[in-house]
Design goal:
Elements: H1 3-9, E1 17-20, E2 26-29, E3 35-42, E4 45-52, E5 61-68, H2 71-79
Length: 81
């Protein structure tokens, strides 16, 4: 597990759940289960991304919100702060 993935997995943010998935990727959810997005380690940084539904007949896709040096900043990107 990379240092970025480890620091993401160790984060505790009130009102959010961060669930480690695979390959260092983590899902960020609210307590009610609403998925806010995903955090992914990329070249020593943390990438925030969302899964968006495709238009009729198109598959869902990930949209990158941004890359940050601090994983907490990546969470803030998902929150729209």
């Amino acid at each position: 597990m990379s240092e970025v993935a480890r620091s993401v997995a160790d984060m505790e943010i009130p009102g959010l759940r961060i669930v480690p998935l695979h390959s260092g990727i983590s899902r960020v959810t609210r307590p009610d289960g609403l998925v806010l997005g995903y955090l992914e380690p990329v070249d020593g940084r943390t990438r925030a991304k969302r899964l968006v539904r495709g238009a009729a007949g198109r598959a869902p896709r990930f949209v990158v919100i941004g890359d940050t040096a601090d994983p907490r900043d990546a969470v803030e990107l998902l929150l729209g702060v």
